[in-house]
Amino acid sequence: MNSTSLARSVIRQLIEDGVSDFVISPGSRNAPLSIALYEAENLGLVNLYVRIDERGAAFFALGLSKASNNYVAVICTSGTAAANFHPAILEAYHSANKLLAITADRPAHLRRTGANQTTLQVGLLEPVPSIDIASSMDLSDVLSNGPVHLNIQFDEPLLSDDRTAWLAGLSPRTKNLSMDEMQAHFSPKARGLVVVGHDRAGLPKEEIAKFADAFGWPLIAEDPLSFPTSIAHAALVMTDPDLRATLMPEQVVVVGRPTLSRSISALIRECAEVIVVDPRTATVDTDRGASQIFSSLPIGDASPEADWLVSWEQMSALTNGAMELDWSEQEAIRTITSNIPEGSGLFIGSSRPIRDIEEYADPRSGITTFANRGLAGIDGNISCAFGIAEKFERSYAIVGDITFLHDLSALVNPSTANLTIFIINNNGGGIFNTLPQSGVEGFEKLFGTPHDLDLAKVIQGFGNSVSKVKGVTDLAHLIAHNASGLNFVVVEVPDRVTNALSLKSVTQSLVSALRIGSNLA
C-alpha cells in the first residue's frame, strides 16, 4: 500500500471512531498524515492544530484530551521527534488520559542500517502499547481507555497525485469507552472518612460527594475547588498529631491517589482500615495495597454516628476563622481561586501552587479544574493549559516561575483562546525552601536556582500582553476586569525564604488556635 493510501486509511478510521482533535508537528515522514488531515479539516471533519515543538505538541494534545475526555491524536515525524512525546505519554499513562501518539517511521527494512532519522520506534514510548503499522489494518479496537502509540511505516514516495474523494460517505460516531460493571459491596463504619486525590481516579465529583453524604462522612479533597462541602484546610489541621488522633476515623475510603501533603498521608497510614477506589489498580498501580480495593465506588448500608460529621465541620469552621495571611503566594492563590468566575476552566501547575490550593484555598464550586497528577512534573504545563483553554469560553492557569520557564517554548505557538495565566514569581524553586534540603550547603545553586529574570519582559518579547501585581487589591481588580484573549499576570510575592518561614508561622498559629478551640492546649 502506498503512503498516501495508508495515511488516509488511518485518518478515516480514527474520525469514524470519534476522534476530532489532531495535533501535528511539521516533518517530512509524517507528510502523508498531515496532508490527509488538512483535507479533512477543509471539510469540517476535524480540528487541526500545528505545534512546532513535539514535546509541547504532546502536552497541548494532553490538555485537549483532559478537557474533552476524548481521544486526541498527536503526530510527528521519525527519529528524536518521536522521543519528545514520552513525557506527555507517561503523564497520560499514569493519569489514564486518552492520548493517541502517532509516530511516522521509515520502512522496517531500513532499521539498524544507519538510515537517516531512523531508530527503533516500536516500544519507544513504553509502558504504553505500541502498534507497528505497515499496511492497512482494522483500528476499531485500538482505542480503549488509556494512551496508545501507533507507529506507522511510510515508504517513498510520500506524496501522491491521487485526488480520490476518500472522505466521501464518512460518518463519525461516538464511541462508548465506558466499562459497565456491577457495584461492589463493603461494610461502612460509623466513623468513616473520604479522602479524594486531585484526579479523583477519573470519577465524577458529584458521585463522590453523594457517596460521602450517603454515609454521613466528612470529605477531604486535595482539590477543594471541586468539592464545596469539603473540610477546609484539612492538610494543615492534620499536621498536628493530637488533632489527627482526635479526628481519626475507623475507616478511610481513598478515591484516586492523594499525593500532595504528608499530613494526609500520615492520616491514611495510621487509620485501621483503608479502602482504595481507583480503576488504575488493575492496570497501572497493580502493587498498591489496602484493606480492600475497588475500581468504582462501592455500596453499603449506612450507619452514621450522629456527632462524627459535626465534629469535623466544627473543626473546619474553627480553621476558617483562624486563617489570617499577609500578602504571600498563599494569599495570592486564595484571591485567584475565590474570584475567578463560574463556568471557567482552571489548570493548576505542579509544585507549590497545587499544594497551596489544597491547604489554603476556600472550598467552592462552579469551575472545572485540571492538573497533571500522573507523574506531577512541571514540564509542559503551559502547553497543557493552552490545550485545555481550547474547550472553554474562558480559562485560567496558575503556575510557578520555574514551571513557566520550563515550558517557555510554548509561547512560540500562543493560545488564541480566552486564557489568563498567573505566574507566581518568587525567583526560583520555592518548594525546595519548604523541604528538608533547604538548609544544605550549596542550596541556592542546586535547588533554589534563582533565574533573576524580568518575566514581564520575557513575555513581552513573545508579543504577549502582561501585567504585574503585588497585592490583593490589584489582583482582585485585574480578575474582575479580565481582558479577552491570552493574558499573563506576573504575581510578585515575597522571597522564597520569607515565604517558607511564613508558612511555618501560619501553620503553628493555626494549629495553636485549633488546639485551644478543641480543648487540647
Q: Which features does this protein show?
A:
six-stranded parallel beta sheet; 18 helices; 17 strands; Rossmann fold; globular; alpha/beta; 521 residues
Question: How do you describe this structure in short?
Answer:
The protein is built from 18 helices and 17 strands.
List strands and helices in order, with pairings.
Blueprint: H1 3-16, E1 21-24, H2 31-42, E2 47-50, H3 54-68, E3 72-76, H4 80-83, H5 86-95, E4 99-105, E5 130-133, E6 148-153, E7 192-196, H6 205-214, E8 219-221, H7 234-237, H8 241-246, E9 251-255, H9 262-270, E10 274-277, E11 292-294, H10 308-322, H11 329-339, E12 345-348, H12 352-360, E13 368-370, H13 381-389, E14 395-400, H14 401-406, E15 419-425, H15 443-448, H16 455-461, E16 465-469, H17 472-480, E17 486-492, H18 496-517
Parallel strand pairs: 1-2, 1-3, 3-4, 4-6, 5-6, 7-8, 7-9, 9-10, 10-11, 12-13, 12-14, 14-15, 15-17, 16-17
Helix pairs in contact: 1-2, 3-5, 3-13, 10-18, 11-12, 11-17
